[in-house]
Each structure stands twice: as C-alpha cells, then as structure tokens.
Amino acid sequence: MRNTRAKIPALLIVITAVAACILRFFQLTREGDTYTYIAGLALPAYSVYPLIFLGLAFSVIYALLKKNLAAAFDFEHTGNSVYLSSWLLALTFFYDFIHQGYNCYQYVSDTSYMDYTYLVPLCITCIFALFSCFYFITVAVSVKNTNYDFRNFTLLHFIPVVWAFTKLFSIMLQIVDISENVDVACEFILLCSILCFLLSMISAVDKKDAPATRMFVFSCAFLGFMSFTVGVSRIAGILAGAAAAGQATYSAVTYIMLGVFSLCLLNDVNKRSKLNLKGNM
Known about the structure:
Structural class: mainly alpha
Strand content: under 5%
Distance between the termini: 14 Å
Shape: globular
Largest sheet: 2 strands, antiparallel
Order of helices and strands: HHEEHHHHHHHH
C-alpha cells in the first residue's frame, strides 16, 4: 500500500519539474528583466526557488513511502535501460571533456592575465570528465558481462565525485546574490544533488546486496527533478537563442544524462522490488 501511495508524490515531482523548467526557460529568454510575465502573472527571478523546494519536499516524501526495496545493483536482473543510459552517460562525459577542453583553450588564448582560481578548476573538470567517461563504460560493461564488476574498482567510484565537487567549487566563487544570480544558484543546487546521488551510489556499492536505502531513492528522484529543471530549460534556451543560456561554461547535456541515469537506476530498483514482493507472497 505504501508503495502505491508513493505514486502520488512521484506524480507531483513530475508536475513540479515541468512547471519549474517552463519558468526557468522564460526567465532565460527574458534575462535582465526584473519580472517574468507568464499568463498575466509577474514572477520575480527567485520565484523558481519555491518550486525547487517543493520538488525537494516531494522527493523526501516519495523516498519515505518506499519500502521492501531490492538491492541498488543486481546485474543478473538489471534491465536494458541502465545499460543504455550508462553508455549514453559515458558519451556525454566525453562530450563534456571536449567542451571543457575547448573552454580551457579559449580562455588561455583570449586572456592576457589568467585567473588561476578559474582556470585550474576548469582543467580539473576537463580531465575528470574523461575519467568519468571510462568509469561509466565500466558500469555499462558490468551490466551485460558478469565477468566484470565495476564495484570491485574502489578508487574509480570517486572520479565523478571529484568532477562534480570541482565544478561546485568553481560555482561557489560566482555566487554573489542568490536573488539575482538565479541561474548560478540553480546550478549550485543541481551539483549538490549530483554529489548526493554519487555518494549514495558509492554507499550502495559498498553494501553490495543490501537493500537500497531511502537516501538512495531520494537522491535519484531529486537529481532527476533538478537535471530536468536546469538542464532541459538550458538546452531549450540555447535553441531559442537566449543570450543568458549561451553564456554557460558547462554541458547541460551531461547534467540531463546524469538525471536520466539516476532515474533508470531508480526504476530498475522499483521493478526488482515488485518482483521480490510477488515472489515472497
């Protein structure tokens, strides 16, 4: 019954994510305006924060209502969605490596007096984006080949963490006023959700066959929410020619695929939990 009730907050997460994504898109296309007008309502730039808080609250409720969870990783019964999303995530990390490498080259070429507090984190994220690509390739190979298990490579698990933490550090240097630097603040929250997911994933790897925790469920759900809210609105803004969207120094595609991968993991856990529950009846 509790797993059935969990569908309600899951639906609310989806609705809130769509609303927040649409709001962010209009804010990006009207960068510089004090208010964004939607359906006659004058919404300030920081109006997206209550929607993010709702997404956070619904994710917590969703996680609390889940029980009898299967293990986070079970390669013998893992579906194709995890396999495909792992490969796509590896490809987007490789793209992120190229993207950040180009940013490094462009900054060095166009700058006479370099700011190393900006350049060094940018170079680190570039390098660890490439390492993260190889990491998620090992995840994909492990899903389809039981002779390999990415969980045995202890140090590899921290590679995406370093990538996310370095990006978070560079973002912290940019935030001046969260009521004005809304886009930067949203990226900050997104990176925090990525770190929460990656650390929960490492914890699940350490516990191996133990049931997935509610923290793991929460981190997957909230990362999916934030990646859609920030990443999709960013891509839509770039396609619409929004100047603010074009100023980004990160790959929104990588953020979106991290959210897709987390949701595929969560869906896989839910499916195996239902099968285990039926098998015990």
